[in-house]
Specification:
This protein has about 170 residues and is α+β, with helices and mostly antiparallel strands. Helix content is about 25%, strand content about 15%. It has a four-stranded antiparallel β-sheet, with no helix packed on it. Strands 5-6 form a two-stranded antiparallel sheet. A two-stranded parallel sheet has the order 7-8. α1 runs parallel beside α2. The two termini are about 30 Å apart.
């Protein structure tokens, strides 16, 4: 899925601001393990000199329009959050600093106290491993922004991001 990825510890890159006007045979790079694809702008030394290249063979389309994952989601963004449940935020200053690890431990601790826990990653690049970590720690709910059709939250305008965040919180409230 074409998208943007910013990271201080991994590959960073994205798509041209003018969009993607590509044809069969054009080359892009894998920017993350969650298969965000674009043009690599920065590759850390520990990864090597070159990220994995992909050659475009075609673009999935519906009625001759490129398919967007936002059109496939069953979830709806909201303009307001209606919930009354307490929210615990785990924040970090960068990628790979332990946010998912801490979140998993908090989930385990709350479960041990007999609480039901809903968890979500609300920013960054989508990564199924983060959702599985929350699930494996005992969360009964674990959606993220990818489930709402956003590949990444990097450079997403506030007016588009906030309804998705409120949609995630409303779903978690159910």
């Amino acid at each position: 899925v074409f998208g943007i990825r910013q990271s201080g510890t991994n590959i960073s890159g994205g798509i041209p601001t003018a969009g993607i006007n590509s044809g069969k045979g054009d080359t892009f790079q894998i920017l993350s393990s969650s298969t965000i694809v674009g043009y690599a702008r920065r590759v850390p030394e520990h990864i090597g000199e070159n990220p994995i290249d992909l050659r475009l063979e075609g673009i999935l389309s519906l009625d001759r329009n490129p398919l967007n994952i936002a059109e496939l989601t069953p979830y709806t963004p909201f303009n307001q959050y209606k919930g009354k449940t307490a929210i615990i935020l785990v924040l970090g200053s960068s990628a790979e600093c332990g946010k998912t690890t801490v979140t998993s431990e908090v989930i385990k601790g709350l479960n041990q106290l007999g609480m039901r826990v809903a968890a979500s990653k609300t920013n960054g690049s989508g990564n199924i491993r983060d959702k599985y970590s929350m699930r494996d720690a005992g969360a009964v709910f674990y959606l993220d922004y990818v489930d709402f059709g956003l590949v990444t939250t990097y450079e997403v305008p506030t007016e588009k991001y906030l309804p998705v965040l409120k949609g995630i919180l409303n779903e978690a409230e159910k």
